[in-house]
Amino acid sequence: MSLARFSLNQATTKRWPMDETVAGCVASGVPGIGLWRDQVADHGLDRTASLVRSAGLTVTSLCRAGFFAAPDWKDDNRRAIEEAVVLGAPVLVLVSGGLADGSRDIDAARRWVGDAVGELVPFAHEAGVRLAIEPLHPMYASDRCVISTLRNALDLAAPYPSEDVGVTIDTYHLWWDDDIWSQIARAGEEDRIACFQVADWITPLPEGVLLGRGLPGTGCIELRRFREAVDATGYTGPIEVEVFHEDVWSRPGDEVLKETLALYTEHVL
Amino acid sequence: MSLARFSLNQATTKRWPMDETVAGCVASGVPGIGLWRDQVADHGLDRTASLVRSAGLTVTSLCRAGFFAAPDWKDDNRRAIEEAVVLGAPVLVLVSGGLADGSRDIDAARRWVGDAVGELVPFAHEAGVRLAIEPLHPMYASDRCVISTLRNALDLAAPYPSEDVGVTIDTYHLWWDDDIWSQIARAGEEDRIACFQVADWITPLPEGVLLGRGLPGTGCIELRRFREAVDATGYTGPIEVEVFHEDVWSRPGDEVLKETLALYTEHVL
């Protein structure tokens, strides 16, 4: 099986210590890793950077910044861009955050996301880090991400150079959208695909609705069709598997990685 | 306060017996009621019809038919149309159902919804009942309703006469959509608004995600903006309040109705 484009987003193996995760990727022939800021901070930024570099792993993305309704959003996002530089991550994933406290004006919240991204563009450009606006599933619109569709993410990215601002396409968040195939094609035409993440949708959703993602093939999403649609735009970049599920997290990381690679080959490639 | 367009969808007071619900509406000056088939069946179809008729209540809709992946979908939907006739309900709300067992082909499921609605059109036309395709929130796409956007519902309705096939606009299901305002305008231009339902979105979602709807004003949806946008299309029909929440259901029906009317006046009118 070809793992040339595979990247393990470390959210999938959230409790696997950083050094074991990196060693496990190397042992399995995994070429790429998507890092999370909290896990990087736990291990140490410089230590993580040298660990992945000496292991020969490619960092495919850093998750995540954004949350533009927070008072310290600008400082935090600038720090995230600096962290991406240290880690050699070409892409910083942005989750916009929800409505401002007590506000019902979601249109205003979306406009603000566009403006805030614009304020970050000079820093990102200077740093050589591409910002990737990620639409999240509409069930998170009130509290985590007011950007719910790929169309909206592309509209907000449009004013800025595509080398500085792209989008994240995550199957879990977008599979339900009847407009998704034309928006993926549009994302390719506008050269905005900065990050491609794969997780499956399993039914029913668990309590809390944050941890319902399944490993590839365990749910109802046409994952191969997504991969083919993204590839049809000319995208040849990494394919990250990013799964959030308590049952996955509670298993040994190397076992999860092994299963993930098999399922990726069967259902995504 | 003007209740001229108000309709109590009886899902809001799910455990209020039918005769008490009808008496409570009359006592509060509520002119309309949205009925549910299971509650109608519990009370008896003919008995319910004569109860609401002698009370002078207008039946604004019957919920619900659809579920086109079920083996007996056609018989069940024809029965629902007949029930609507007996009850004097001008509108039958259709919830499409989810993916067929074991299928991942959501595009095929959507095409089938369009075809199935088409098969019902002659019966509905003959009966004088308008079918109202309801898009549900995308978190229900796999198991309850593959139609997640107003745009998709309008696309599927398009081949059929607007007097026979319309759509249901429910704030709870559609509020997150960045395309919603233009699609509401389109729904008006195409004369498809058959039913308008109001509920609020409260955060966080409860376990099971079915019962998270709030009374008007208790959540983050711009309800008045929705009502104004629907009215701006020329729609002058009923405004149903339809809330699903255990905390609402566990309270006495007359108390819930009283609060609902106050919140409707404050947040919707």
TrEMBL record, chains A, B:
Pfam families: AP_endonuc_2. Residues 27-263 form the Xylose isomerase-like TIM barrel domain. Transmembrane segments: none annotated. Keywords: Isomerase. The keyword Isomerase applies. The keyword Cytoplasm does not apply. SUPFAM superfamilies: Xylose isomerase-like. One of its GO terms (molecular function) is isomerase activity. This is Xylose isomerase. It comes from Dactylosporangium sucinum. The lineage of its organism: Bacteria, Bacillati, Actinomycetota, Actinomycetes, Micromonosporales.
